[in-house]
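Re: [help] complex structure
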Amino acid sequence: MYICKVQGKCISTIKNKGLQGLSLVGVQKINKTGDVSGEIIVVVDPIGCSVGETVLVTTGSNARYALNDSGATVDAVILGIIDSYDFNLMEE
Amino acid sequence: MYICKVQGKCISTIKNKGLQGLSLVGVQKINKTGDVSGEIIVVVDPIGCSVGETVLVTTGSNARYALNDSGATVDAVILGIIDSYDFNLMEE
Amino acid sequence: MYICKVQGKCISTIKNKGLQGLSLVGVQKINKTGDVSGEIIVVVDPIGCSVGETVLVTTGSNARYALNDSGATVDAVILGIIDSYDFNLMEE
Amino acid sequence: MYICKVQGKCISTIKNKGLQGLSLVGVQKINKTGDVSGEIIVVVDPIGCSVGETVLVTTGSNARYALNDSGATVDAVILGIIDSYDFNLMEE
Amino acid sequence: MYICKVQGKCISTIKNKGLQGLSLVGVQKINKTGDVSGEIIVVVDPIGCSVGETVLVTTGSNARYALNDSGATVDAVILGIIDSYDFNLMEE
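Output below.
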């Protein structure tokens, strides 16, 4: 899983029926220095996060398991909101 | 999932039977600045997109689920057309 | 899926029984400028391609589906021969 | 699998029910020179590792198999503690 | 699959029961020039390879299939020993 920051909403009207009713947001991974970096990943947000929130994201086949909806056609989902982390490298 | 731009068609005559009847297009991911970048991914287009259109792409085992065709042998599919996105980093 | 160029044969005598009878070739992805680049991927060639041929490659669990052989232990397979592609970025 | 170093704990209160009761830690891969590098991966720690410990990490669908808990919604898990490794490249 | 060079053994005593009895080695991919490069991958060696040997490695869910042991919790396995390869790019 990855620690990511929510960057904004992503709107799609013409879409696969396995995405109907699901909220899509764009996120970026948080790097060693606590800043966002790298490519934008579009993930399902089942929680209702705000822009700027720090979240835990899963990708791959686990995303479908996490939604617990066998009809969902997704490969990336927010698993939770991160309260805090204390990584060694942050202190170096 | 990733936000990608459709770059053109990809034609294959001699191919796996699990690809018969499926339209193949080349896409590239859209990066932070809104430009395309990175490698070309060949994806199934079940919608009939135009070149230059902004689309949502899924990869991996989810692609087969999204097509809802157990005989399809694909690992990347267009899930929908992106109407808009408002990502924080675009405003920085 | 990716557009790749066949680079040569790969011979293995002592190997997993799920690879018996399968032809292995090394390929590289074709980049934006039409040249090959990046790492060598060893893929199963069920078609009998020539060196230098442009092919469509799938990776991951889809490779086993594409071979339609439940005993095959492979993670990358040639899905077809690419006749042509007309990607925007090629014209830039 | 990858050799990683445990970098610290990651706390999430609002989270997917498939993560309830699982300890989450951040790890980084150990590179050729024995130092950590690259992005932070959040993994389930079923062993109870200390910060700084060298561990073996699996990612992808295998993570669910390794936990042996069909309800777990995880894509990265610590498989064991690394006692030692003697890699050629370390001596170069 | 990838062509890799075996770099050494990796010892773990406290480990997942799905790894019991399996030999773990560290490998690196062989690049275009025939040299090793990139990160260290820990793989199961069901053959008994020597350090320096050139091997074929599979990753992902296929690794479990290749071991033919439903209890194995692995994501990377040696599929065979590479006798030879004749890649175009080597001659460039």
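Residues 37 and 85 of chain E are 18 Å apart (CA to CA).
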